[in-house]
Design brief:
Length: about 300
C-alpha cells in the first residue's frame, strides 16, 4: 500500500458564556441551555498511517492524558473506522495547548480533531451529519468542537443551533493547578441544589443579543455559569483568582464550564495583556493566556 501523507487538524477550546443547568434526567445527565463560544487556544491532532492504533501526546501536563483506547481521540478513530468497515490502524499525535481537565473541552477537541483527521487520512468523506452523530456519542461537548464559532447546545449540550456573533471578544484564561472532574462537578451541583426547585434551563435573550451585536459590556453583564458554585465548592481557591482578574479590570470573571480554568472577558487586546500580567503576578493561577473569540471549528491544516 502506498503511504498516505499525515493529516493535521487544528481544534479550538471553548468557553461557556452561559451554562444553565437543570435537574438531572433519569439517565443522570443534566438538561442544559449551553451557549458555547469557541476561543483561539488550540490543540493539534495529527493522524498518520500505522500498523495499529497508537497515541502520543505533547504539551503542558500531557502526562495526565491517557494514551490507551479510553482516550476520546482513540474512541473517535475506532467509531469512524467501524462506520466504514475499516481497521483503526492509525497513529494519533496530540499537541496540547488547551488546559488538560480544565473545563475548556480539551478532550472533546482532541476527539473532534481525530475524527476529522482520520476521515481525511482514510479518504472516507463522511457526511457532516454522520460526523456530528459520532461526536454526540463520544461526549456532550464534542459536536461543538467540530463546528466551532458560537452555538446554543440543548439536550445534554449535544443538540446544536449555530449562533451569529457580531464581533470579536477578548478573553484571558487563568489555568489552575490540576484539573477538576466534570462528573464530580455535576455531582456537587446536585448536592448543592438538593431539595431546591431547579428551574428548567433557558438561554438568556440578553446574552444572545450581546453575542449578535458583538457588545462586550452587554455580554459581561449577561454571562452566567450554574456550575460555578459547585466548582468553587470543590476548589475554594478559585475565588481568589476570580477576584484578582476583576481587580485587574476585567469586565467580568467566571469559571469556564466545569472548571477549574477561569475566564475573564476584557475590552480589547491591550486589556487582555494587562489582565493576564496581573493574574500571573497575583500568584493565584498556574498560567494566564489571552485568547480571542469566536474561533473556527476543527480545520484540516494544509502544510
Ligand atoms: O458527555 P460527557 O461524557 O462529556 O459528560 C461527562 C460527564 O459530565 C457525564 O458522565 C455526566 O456526569 C456529566 N454531564 C452531565 N450532564 C450533561 C453533560 C455532562 O451530568 N449535560
Amino acid at each position: 500500500m502506498t503511504r498516505r501523507p499525515a493529516v493535521t487538524v487544528r481544534v479550538p477550546a471553548k468557553v461557556n458564556v452561559q451554562l444553565a443547568v437543570g435537574a438531572p434526567r433519569p439517565d443522570g445527565f443534566h438538561p442544559l441551555a449551553n451557549v458555547f463560544l469557541a476561543v483561539g487556544l488550540y490543540d493539534e491532532v495529527t493522524a498518520t498511517d500505522a500498523p495499529e492504533l497508537t497515541i502520543t501526546c505533547e504539551g503542558p501536563r500531557s502526562g495526565q492524558v491517557p494514551l490507551d483506547r479510553t482516550n476520546l481521540a482513540a474512541r473517535a478513530a475506532i467509531a469512524l473506522a467501524a462506520l466504514h468497515g475499516l481497521a483503526p490502524d492509525v497513529h494519533l499525535h496530540i499537541a496540547k495547548d488547551i488546559p488538560v481537565a480544565g473545563g475548556m473541552a480539551g478532550g472533546s477537541a482532541d476527539a473532534a480533531g481525530a475524527l476529522l483527521a482520520c476521515d481525511a487520512l482514510w479518504g472516507t468523506n463522511t457526511p457532516h451529519d454522520q460526523l456530528l452523530a459520532i461526536c454526540a456519542e463520544l461526549g456532550s461537548d464534542v459536536p461543538f468542537s467540530l463546528v466551532g464559532g458560537a452555538a446554543l447546545g440543548v439536550g445534554r449540550g449535544e443538540q446544536l443551533t449555530p449562533l451569529p456573533v457580531g464581533g470579536e471578544f477578548h478573553w484571558v484564561f487563568a489555568v489552575a493547578d490540576g484539573g477538576l472532574s466534570t462528573p464530580a462537578v455535576y455531582g456537587e451541583f446536585d448536592r448543592l441544589t438538593a431539595g431546591t426547585a431547579v428551574p428548567a434551563p433557558e438561554a438568556s435573550d440578553a446574552l444572545l443579543a450581546a453575542l449578535r451585536t458583538g457588545d462586550a459590556t452587554a455580554l459581561a453583564a449577561a454571562l452566567g455559569n450554574d456550575l460555578q458554585p459547585a466548582a468553587l465548592s470543590l476548589r475554594p481557591s478559585l475565588a481568589a483568582t476570580l477576584a484578582a482578574g476583576t481587580a485587574a479590570g476585567a469586565l467580568a470573571a467566571l469559571v469556564s464550564g466545569s472548571g477549574p480554568t477561569t475566564a475573564y472577558l476584557v475590552k480589547d487586546a491591550d486589556a487582555a495583556q494587562r489582565v493576564a500580567e496581573a493574574l500571573r503576578a497575583s500568584g493565584t493561577c498556574a498560567a494566564a493566556r489571552p485568547a480571542v473569540s469566536p474561533a473556527a471549528g476543527a480545520t484540516v491544516l494544509t502544510r
